[in-house]
Amino acid sequence: MFKFSGFPEGKTRLAPIPAQFFSDILPSITHLGEMKLLLQVFWLMDQMEGSFRYVLREDFINHERFLSGMGDSHEEAQATLDKALHLLVTHAILLEVALDIEGETVSFYFLNTPKGRAAIESIERDEWLPTGDPAAPLELALDRPNIYRLYEENIGPLTPMISESLAEAEDTYPAKWIEDAFRIAVEKNSRNWRYIAAILDRWQQKGRYERQDRRDSEEARRRYADWED
C-alpha cells in the first residue's frame, strides 16, 4: 500500500496551477481519470521550455508510475487514459490538433490558453516545422524570443519582482503581442515594464487593432499606445 513519506524540509519546488482550475474546472469534473490527467499535464508543461508547450499521448504512456495509477492492468490504464484525453478535449480544457509526421498521424495537445490557441492557429496556417525528435516532433516557426530575453535586451537586468510579472504576462498574452508591445515601447522611448504591461492590458480589454494595409500599422500601434508613463 502506498504511504507518503511527507514533504522534505526547506524550499520545495511548486508546480503552478491556474486559479480557474479550482473555481471553474474542478467542480465540473466527474471522471477521476480526467482530473488526474489534467494535473499531470500542468506538471509536465511546467517542466518544459519554450514559448509554445504541448503534450503527446506518449508522454503518459512512457510515464510508467503515472500510468500504473490509471488502471489495474496496462490495457485498463490505457483505456482510462484515452477516455480522460477525450473528456479534456470535449470540455475544451485541452486543444487537440492532429498532424501527419513521417507518415503517422500524431495528436498534439495544448492547454486552452491564449498561447495555446495561438499555437493551434499557427499550425492551421502551416507555420510549423518537423524536428525529427520523437519526444518533441513539432516546432512552431513563430516561436519567438522569450519575454525574459526581450526584457534584458530592451530594458535592463531582471529583478525577482519583474520576473514574476513577466512570467504572468507570458502565460496570459500571445508571444506576437508581447514582442510588438516591446517594439512600441522602444520606438516611443518608454523603456519600462509598466508601459509595456499597459499596452498589453489595453489590447486584451479593448481588442487589438489590425489592418490588412500594413503601411498604416505604425499609426495603428500608436493609437493603442497614446498615454503617458
Description:
The protein is mainly alpha-helical. The chain has 2 domains: 28-140, Arc Repressor Mutant, subunit A; 147-223, Arc Repressor Mutant, subunit A. It is 51% helix and 10% strand. It is built from 11 helices and 4 strands. It has helices spanning 19-25, 32-47, 57-61, 64-68, 74-90, 114-124, 147-154, 160-172, 175-187, 193-206, 217-223; strands spanning 94-101, 104-111, 128-130, 138-140. It has a two-stranded antiparallel ribbon with strand order 1-2. Strands 3-4 form a two-stranded antiparallel ribbon. Helix 7 (147-154) runs parallel beside helix 9 and helix 9 (175-187) packs across helix 10 (193-206). It starts with 18 loop residues before the first helix and ends in a 6-residue tail after the last helix.
Topology at a glance:
Elements lengths: L18 H7 L6 H16 L9 H5 L2 H5 L5 H17 L3 E8 L2 E8 L2 H11 L3 E3 L7 E3 L6 H8 L5 H13 L2 H13 L5 H14 L10 H7 L6
Antiparallel strand pairs: 1-2, 3-4
User: What is the second-level CATH architecture of the largest domain?
Assistant: Orthogonal Bundle
Q: What is the tally of beta strands?
A: 4
Taken from the alpha-carbon principal axes, the silhouette is globular
Give unreliable regions as ranges. 210-221, 223-229
Q: Do you know the CATH topology of the largest domain?
A: Arc Repressor Mutant, subunit A
Mean pLDDT over the full residue set:
85
Integer-rounded radius of gyration: 20 Å
Instruction: Give the % helix.
Output: 40-55%
Q: Would you list the SSEs in sequence order as H and E?
A: HHHHHEEHEEHHHHH
- Determine the oligomeric state from the structure: single chain
Can you count the helices? Answer: 11
Hey, roughly how much beta strand do the residues contain? 5-15%
Number of domains in the coordinates? 2
**CATH structural class of the largest domain:** Mainly Alpha
> Describe the biggest sheet?
2 strands, antiparallel
- State the strand order across the main sheet: 1-2
Derived structural class: mainly alpha
User: How far is the first residue's CA from the last residue's CA?
Assistant: 60 Å
